[in-house]
Amino acid sequence: RVRTNGEVIETLAADLATPEGVETVVARAHALGDVELLVNNAGLSTSGPFLAQPADREIESIRVNVEALYRLTRAFVPGMVARNRGGVLNIASIVAFQAIPYWTTYAATKAFVLAFGEGLAYELRDSGVRVVTVCPGFTRTGLYADSGVPGLAGRLLPFAKPETVVRAALAAYDAGRVIRVVGFVNRLLAVSGALTPRFVLRWLMAQMFAPTAARPG
Fold it and tell me: Rounded to whole angstroms, how far apart are CA atoms 203 and 30?
């Protein structure tokens, strides 16, 4: 438990890749009182050719990025709806907007987060509960320190500071946005991706994210 600026912050270690870990978080949060804002920010990433990845590690990432997010949302949103107030802030990614060869599973999990958040936001639009999905680009956090960003993308695309993403996410929540893409370059990528034929986009993403050994030529 940490006290800062007059607020008490309580930390809790739990393995969100397991139902038991999620339940630990849910039980502790309920014991502390009503949850007014749920931030689904936990994430795991693997990168590289799909068949080269340990299946257990990829499944673990699906459990954290998708299943835990679903379970936590399911646990806390009913109480918010009953109180006619509250919110969910989902952290997706710029890679949620298209398939990413060599980052296939991670991008797919973030596509789920984006679609899930957008759909839920509409369902809860008259409930007093906000659901905002934030799509940052690469951010200087432990996620990328552990797995890295594959290929040219990790060297060419900009990395944001965590505090920049936090400010943008909270501003989007305060404004009642449904989706917020963080950063000018990322907004440009999202818009241009929507206008580009998918077969072209797949090829471009493969060139950007392929490990050196996997890139043709």
Answer: 47
Residue type, 158: P
Average pLDDT over residues 173-201: 88
pTM as predicted: 0.85
Q: Which positions ≥6 away from 11 have C-beta within 8 Å?
A: 1, 2
**Residue 144 designated active-site:** no
Is 3.40.50.720 the CATH classification of the domain at 34-214? Answer: yes
Q: Select which of 70, 102, 106, 144 is catalytic.
A: 106
> How distant, in Å, are the alpha carbons of 14, 24, 54, 126, 206 from that of 20?
9, 6, 23, 33, 37
Confidence category of residue 192, pLDDT binned at 50, 70, 90: confident
Judged on CB neighbours under 10 Å (0-12, 13-18, 19+), 41 is: middle
Contact 80, 86 (CB under 8 A): yes
CA–CA distance, 92 with 116 (Å, rounded to integer): 10
C-beta of residue 17 within 8 angstroms of C-beta of residue 64: yes
